[in-house]
Fold this sequence. Notes:
Lgt; lipoprotein; two-stranded parallel sheet
Amino acid sequence: MLSLVSPATVLAVTSAAATAVQGAAAAPIRWENLGIGPIALDLGFFALKWYSLAYLGGIILGYWHLSKMVRQPGSPMAQRHADDLFFYATLGIILGGRLGYAIFYAPELFANPLNLLKLWEGGMSFHGGLMGTVMAIAWVSWRAKLNFVRVCDYISVCVPFGLLFGRLANFMNGELWGREAGPGVPWAMVFPGGGPIARHPSQLYEALLEGLILMIVLLVLFWQTKARWRPGLLVGTFTLGYALARFTVEFYREPDAQLMDFAMRTGFSMGQWLTIPMMAVGLFFLLRALIRKPLGAAAAGAVPA
């Protein structure tokens, strides 16, 4: 016997199918479905992690670019100084980054100092690495009688390389994910360890603002303008630019679990509090550079190799 389906039934089925399609389309991206992970190269007997590759790539690319910069007229240093900076700044990044993480984010590591050496377990602070790098620059500048501010100008142009690679490595590791994202964020992701909540991929926000955009700005200033002749202009731009980018992204980045209460009590995350003095320092050097007269070609002659 032939049975007819009522229009109401057809409408109900169509509506349910449409709802299911919309639900599937609105489903958040799952990080584990992207086919990525913390291991960049696995040979069985040796595994190279993205985080290690990011540090290695940032340092090598920064050294290569610094070597190109010091060959330009007006360099405050010679290649031999760039070589020294490469060595001491690398130590400053690693030691300062680890100690900074322990001081600002995980003081419990000091209960067992051996844990500070476990770099493979993660935990590096940009602000700590920055302080370590500044100390390295100060040491090389003092020993070689170089202009500290001008050396900082040149180094600051190279820093965003490492920031870009480092934040991309954070994303590849599925770590340092963002806060809960609303329904209007189609690129929201569910990260391992972050529960079933769709979150902002704040690592990519940081890679874009702290890394790519800041890198482009500084490269243009150095290669296309006379910014190198204004001591403090480049390092001021970097410091202020990074601080503003980090302060902004922190609104979308989930605070470290051990500092969640701190962020709720103070209104800002630890990362934001640490960028406030950076804003003041960056603005000071920027205004100082713009107010003062630029160096003349004779006064800014290259250091002989």
